[in-house]
Records
---
Amino acid sequence: MEQLLRNRDNYISEFAGFVAAAPSSYHAAAALAGVLVGSGFTQLDETEAWPAVTAGSSGVVVRDGAVIAWRVGEDVTPTSPVRVFGTHTDSPGFVLKPQPDFVADGWAQAGVEVYGGPLINSWLDRDLGMAGRIVTRDGAEHLVSTGAVARIPQLAIHLDREANSGLTLDRQRHVQPVLGIAGEGTSVLGALCAAAKRARPAILPEDIAALDVRLFDTQAPTRIGVHGELFASSRLDNLSSTFAGLVALLGEKPAPGTISVLAAFDHEELGSETRSGACGPFLEDVLARIRDGLGASAEDAARALAGSWCVSADAGHSVHPNYAEKHDPRVRPLAGRGPMLKVNANQRYASDAHGAALWQRVCDEAGVETQEFVSNNTVPCGSTIGPLTATRLGIRTVDVGVPLLSMHSARELAHVDDLHGLAKAAAAFFAGA
């Protein structure tokens, strides 16, 4: 991973592979854990006792579609601070409803529900797969991912002459994908069982008790632009931050006397109020068990948190050339000019003056250009895991992220320098800048 921090093109190539391997939050969690375990991290089970924490030790734990991993620096004590790089693994889109198979006018279709706040029109007329987890009646969990099996077809212009004047999509009637022609053995559950190739014995549709499965765009991530400087992909919000944190955690040792933590939560696009979301107890639980492994008292733990930092990394907005009026008239972040410090007076982002100073030090140390983002006063500001983590733990937090065009589209756009720059800045953060 160290060489990825030094080589932008190799980093982008590996990132493209990571996105392709992570079409759902559950796949992202499995991919993260697989890379970490392969790099020597110990995967721990929440139901079992955890070992003592010592200098140089490392661990990873998966909770549904979320992952928390840590790496312990030299000279740690019960009051050693943590440096948390926080991200999320989910993206807006569509998830399958219960009893998803239905037939309409001779077409086999799948019932879906809108997840989060996607740009719905961007999902039309794309070759879609299905990915997530199925749980069989015996309680076993299986990851599944199909090829291109579905499409949400737009109504032809001949049947809606006003479509280019203003497209209105009903979230129930107009977004149900087609899978094929009815009566040819086409079914959602059948496709998912066929995708569960590693299951032994083979899974049959009647074996499935429930599923957590989403649609995903099967088009591969790719570099575009005249000079190949742009990166077009699904799920840049927020796998761009998740992969950056992974590479930084593996590529840079923690500063002496500190503990580096990657916290990749699920369900951020829904508000994070789940057991695997940032509002839940996952990070608090893990940090408490790490403290216990250090033999820390309640006083020690409080002192450690008071000296700790969280960098909440989530994608942000580049100025859009066709909608310039939607952005602040003076603060104009642009793709290619570095990851952004995200600021909001109403604390929709957790950044403050101390956080801004930390982020500037981190970027200076990494040799990475940075810029600022603030919303136009007439455009409501989104939020991140940053304020939630700060509220839950009382930890100093700063919000940052890579500037995108087309955020929440089925296919988003970033600059390769910004993607790589975020990883280098994350590494400098772990190193104690």
---
Amino acid sequence: MAALLHAIQHAAALRRERVFRDRRHPLDLYDDEQMFKLYRFSRQGCLHLINRLSRRIQHSTRRNHALPPSLQVFVALRFFATGSVMDCTSCIHGIHISTTSRTVRRVALALGELRDEVIKFPETMEEVKTAQVDFFNLAGMPNVVGAVDGTHVELHGAPLDDEYIYTNRKGKHSINVQLICNARYKITNVCARWPGSTHDSRVLRNSRIGERFADGELPGILVGDSGYPLQPWLITPLRDPQGNAERNYNRAHCRTRVTIEQLNGQLKNKFRCLMGQGIQMSAPRACDIIIASLTSPKTLKNRNKPSKWNRMKCHTTPQIRTS
């Protein structure tokens, strides 16, 4: 009996005492400028995200000092903003790295559930007309409802069995993300599930948005670079323009399509997890992180200014089709 008591006491002595770290809340520590620098969102933007996600990420119990929804959002935003390894994010918030991993996953899935509410392609007559007028004011291209392009988000690693399909043309592992935006830098469609070896044209051809355009379900046209094939609903630049009319068309096309190029740059500058050495997660989880970043409301600024298309001497008839 004495030996048993001695063994129990010895085991209790060896058991590591639980330590609850001091969790400092960013809302109490930082002003608006510091918060935007650390989390890439203003105070109002962070509060907006917290209000939208609180119900979805609230823990059912406060057992073991469970993280409140507000702190969970800040942990995820810090990871999205820096793209660093998770131990850096865990240190700044006073939590364990395993808790950081679970929190980022939890918030990313919650943001993914808001995808259909935030990312919407114009389908009604009023929405289509507004998109066409906005693009027409840029460079005089009529009937345009969106600019499409693909951007590669690198992966720090890839599955060993399927490594070759994630290797892009630059020899790096990545996810090929297709984005469509309007003239106001608002993302209207995203497809983030294809490995890096997939060509942009194949992604569009096999995406739901491409199928709907091909079937005539959606009005208007898209603008894309020379990597896409010319379609009745997709216009591309001329490879060898002849005459002023064709050169003016290429200039107008370039000024219209540059919105998606600028959006890609703004997006990766805001969420550094999408650039650099790549997302240090498995491919399916990396896709969830990408969708979560794109779903965050009010992520980009509108830098477009109305331009006078007639300065370019475009000979395109200014007609706006609304059906």
---
Amino acid sequence: MPIDIRALRYFVETARQRSFTQAASSLYVTQSTISKMVRQLEDEIGQPLLIREGKSVRLTDVGKVVYERGQEALGVVHRLTLEVADLSSLGRGQLHVGIPPMVNLFFSPAVSAFRKRYPNLQLTLAEHGGQVIEQQVANGEIEVGATVLPGDSGLALETRQFAKYPIWVVGPRDAAWAKERTAGRTGTRTAGRTAVGTISLHALSQEPLVMLTEAFSLTRTMRQIFLEARIEPRVVAQSGHWDFLASMAVAGLGTTFLPEPLVARLESRDRLAVARLIEPTVDWTLAHIWSPGRYLSHAARAWLDVCDEVMGG
């Protein structure tokens, strides 16, 4: 049974995004094109693959099988393309790198250096949550990416740390925990300002929380921290945008967790209560990832080398 690779790619992205609209935006095509190609794939398979529910979709039983095997097939095609193209070295070609939205601000200098050094290489940065990027690297859909550690240990990915920052608590100025925070005793500073203080996780046990969506590695880490502390977090809202979390905190909706570099960038900081999280101390550790047993193109290796030079390791 012949299967159109492009139709398979469109179906996999639609299943991943759970939306024709989001898939079309991600692939830079029209929604009608996505719908047509998915329908074509369903005709080729002879079974419905998606259940349409308003603006969202979910997989049928057959769709789940095609989705899993489809990711594997697309990974094989992608690796084949890379290995053939790589024979021409770095004179031309393309490289896709997965970067979580909260991490992208660190990569501007590396992107600039890479483009100057390899002007004929097309570099595409794909933004997804860390967990999605880990899965894409493991499947071979992309060669290299970045994530927040610890990653999914079951994927057995190679990691190379390039940054590490403490997690801070950010919330309304009148939050109950803001009155309990302990002033910093060591005169530590962040972004040129004296640290406000520290706060323990248990002081937040009754606080309403606004957090990043479940696709983000930071949320995975914080949920594990709460579980180990035997605290049930009161999550009242979630968003995929860290600056919106800060806006909700300013509005008094709840408290959130942000890594130190993002706290330093908050324009609304003067209207917020901020404190470094201790007991336990939680770090935001960033790392490059790739699959250790898979062919790594010249372009991917060049990208990692440039990042090491510009960002350190």
---
Amino acid sequence: MTALQPAASRTAVPGTSGLSRAFGRSMFAKTLFDNRRIFTVWALATGLLALMYAGFYPQITADATASVPEAMSGFGFDDLSSAAGYLQSAVFGLLVPLLATFYGAATGARMISADEESGYLDLLLAHPISRTRLLLHRFAALATGAVLIAAVVLGAMLAIRTGAELDTISVGGFTAQAVTLALLALVFGALATAIGAATGKSRAVVFGATAGIGVLSYALNGFASQIGADWLRRLTPFRYYIGGEPLKNGLPLADVCVLAAVTAVLLGVGAWRFAHRDLGR
């Protein structure tokens, strides 16, 4: 009788066929498998961008340093002459953290919102898995992607460290910066996951809200000193991501703890609300 069923009725449920079914016993592994291409693209794109901009360091001249507007000093563009100063501004202070922010926003929006929007969430929760466990497994996969991004960026920096005259920065300094980069992505990943889990809004709305908060906090961190309100920087995750200058000073443990704590709080609030929310609304 099964053989006589129309092809449409035998269509596999998304994410339950092929190798994906082999990972079905673990929601973490399944999410990791289903998003493997997305995580790989984000990691390679971020690593290549960091590699490209870091490679420009030997071409930086004193004239180029002097031509940087004073308004950009809040973004770290006040010391382009040293390798650490250049990377802290042009690489780890500009495009790379924004990519990490967008990764967190985009991937976090997929973790719960995309499934709820498509109706796939009901099918997932029909299995013996609690809402909290589902959210935590999904976020663990997001975290793995963030670590992959940081690892690829770290590998890119170490690969050109000597050739691009960046050897004044220690391996420990590069590693410390990679750790804070991963944590920055986790903060915004947790924010997007929490917003989606707590509100049930669409994936586009969750991404837009999270990315908007990220860009605004990035701008606030950069321009706060220009308006004489340095204390405002402490309200943004970017201050704890790069304010301790990991490339120069190594891993800032206090800043790492703040980023980790913010991630845990956001995730906890999102999980609590998700566990108590009526998914029909």
